[in-house]
Specification:
With 171 residues, this protein is of the alpha/beta class. The chain contains 5 helices and 9 strands; from the N terminus they run ββααβαββββαβαβ.
């Protein structure tokens, strides 16, 4: 298997000074690495009856759609405000530097739907926790959360305590 971590580029001082940004673009551009990442992302959930994968805007769309395809499941996007054409359910949550909002179409999931939440990076866990809240508000059963990369020092896993959570790589 390709050394996936070697394909994660570290960019210093982006988007602000002092931040080490983990860029997954080189990994996504390597076909073998992308296949290996997708396989590792879904492996813990393959036999859990996942019916739908939900992914957060924007890179969660990439990995979420790949995960849905690999699991034979549907895909539902969690979007920024104003991007969805039908009635929506929204959640606003705190970020380190302000607030953000995610929306989902109210008719996107039948009650009880078994959902895997996928995103590229788990950092502080705020976006993931808000996404779980949004999905459960619609009556979904969030079976697990899968991330390509986990930034362990930022403590996101702790914010999601009690949830089934996996990451392909940890930095």
């Amino acid at each position: 298997m390709t050394d996936l971590a070697a394909l994660v580029r570290t960019v210093a001082d982006f988007p602000t000074p002092g931040v080490l940004f983990r860029d997954l673009t080189p990994l996504m551009g390597d076909a073998a690495a992308l296949r290996a990442t997708t396989a590792a992302l879904v492996a813990p959930y393959r036999d859990l009856g996942i019916e739908t994968v939900a992914g957060m805007e924007a890179r969660g769309f990439i990995f979420g759609a790949l995960a849905a395809h690999a699991l034979g499941a549907g895909f539902v996007p969690l979007r920024k405000p104003g991007k969805l054409p039908a009635a929506v359910e929204a959640v606003t949550y705190q970020l380190e530097y302000g607030t953000a909002t995610l929306e989902i179409q109210r008719d996107a999931l039948p009650r009880g739907r078994r959902v895997l939440l996928v995103d590229d990076v788990l950092a502080t866990g705020g976006t993931a926790a808000a996404s779980v809240t949004l999905l459960e508000r619609l009556g979904a059963t969030v079976v697990g959360l899968a991330f390509v990369l986990e930034l362990a020092k930022l403590g996101g896993r702790g914010r999601l305590a009690g949830r089934t959570l996996s990451s392909v790589m940890t930095f």
